[in-house]
């Protein structure tokens, strides 16, 4: 048939299906690579940008609460803008929930907002006092607090293997503190803020599940109410901390470059929530955690190179212990979840071994 120039329709159909599958696989691979790259870029850039705003010797702005407040304000404005645009655009172009201020919903979200304020504030304060290279180690106890709080609040036990991975993370954390002290760059304030940030991140995950029904399960509505509550609550804290007085004497208050950088940090703060959800959607929660661990490793290496720092072998070992422990924990929990899913569910009408 090939010699006579007559093609086989079955062969053509198989080749067409194979080509279609290959094209679909390539498209999916490109989408995943794009989303993961976008997550890495936004996350790493946001950390460096915040470090500049919080602790740059050229900027000299000692108002961390104001920086955090402004980022929350930008998120509120973006949510409201997208909600208005979505009301004029078809859902196929822009699918964003309708948002309006409801004091009853705001009060329901308030407990989470208090934890949320602690999380973002302690994150920024940790970054203010420690270097970008050590930032990941300083906030590395989130997994440990997840296990602890799951037991204390939800009565969920953890397997021995998962506990061992937590032990590796704690060991890396303490070794990192020791090595920072040996190099003369240790900030106990940064360490304390990092521990508090880790605790608040864990509490934030727990409270988010409890509060989501109040906003009809919409993450975007929760983001809006969380940030608008935070903006209000930040005002008295800024007054007590002296941030308003610092801003009054700040020499770059009328500088457009400064406000541009502040607004950019707010945009990145909003974008990280979006790309995080996007990465989970295109991959899985397990892959997202692995990607986050790999991103933290790349971020550490970039920070050491960018700031031209020299670190000891034990310092790098502490980082590898934290990253390795975090990866191992994710892997162990993934295997446990897979095992639970694969276990057969006994049928209600299934007879027992005695035949009764």
UniProtKB/TrEMBL annotation:
Name of this protein: Uncharacterized protein
Species, as recorded: Sphaerodactylus townsendi
């Amino acid at each position: 048939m090939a010699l006579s120039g007559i093609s086989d329709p079955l062969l053509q159909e198989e080749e067409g299906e194979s080509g279609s599958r290959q094209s679909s696989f390539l498209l999916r691979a490109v989408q995943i690579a794009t989303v993961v790259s976008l997550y890495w870029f936004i996350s790493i850039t946001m950390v460096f940008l915040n470090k500049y705003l919080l602790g740059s010797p050229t900027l000299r702005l000692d108002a961390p609460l104001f920086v955090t407040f402004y980022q929350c304000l930008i998120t509120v404005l973006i949510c409201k803008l997208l909600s208005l645009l979505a009301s004029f655009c078809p859902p196929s172009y822009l699918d964003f929930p309708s948002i309006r201020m409801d004091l009853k919903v705001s009060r329901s979200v308030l407990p989470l907002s208090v934890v949320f304020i602690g999380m973002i504030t302690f994150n920024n304060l940790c970054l203010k006092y420690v270097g970008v290279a050590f930032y990941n180690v300083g906030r590395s106890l989130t997994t440990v607090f997840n296990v602890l709080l799951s037991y204390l609040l939800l009565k969920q036990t953890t397997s021995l293997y998962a506990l061992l991975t937590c032990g590796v993370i704690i060991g890396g954390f303490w070794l990192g503190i020791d090595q920072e002290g040996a190099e003369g760059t240790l900030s106990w304030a940064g360490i304390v803020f990092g521990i508090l940030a880790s605790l608040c991140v864990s509490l934030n995950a727990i409270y988010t599940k409890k509060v989501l029904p109040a906003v009809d399960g919409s993450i975007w509505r929760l983001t809006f109410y969380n940030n608008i509550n935070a903006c209000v609550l930040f005002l008295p804290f800024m007054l007590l901390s002296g941030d308003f007085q610092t801003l009054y004497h700040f020499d770059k208050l009328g500088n457009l470059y400064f406000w541009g950088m502040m607004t950019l940090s707010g945009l990145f703060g909003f974008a990280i929530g979006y790309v995080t959800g996007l990465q989970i959607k295109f991959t899985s929660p397990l892959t997202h955690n692995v990607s986050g661990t790999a991103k933290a490793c790349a971020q550490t290496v970039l920070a050491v190179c960018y700031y031209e720092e020299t670190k000891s072998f034990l310092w790098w070992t502490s980082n590898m212990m934290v990253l390795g422990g975090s990866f191992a924990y994710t892997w162990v929990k993934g295997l446990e979840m897979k095992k639970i899913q694969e276990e057969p569910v006994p049928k209600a009408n299934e007879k027992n071994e005695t035949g009764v």
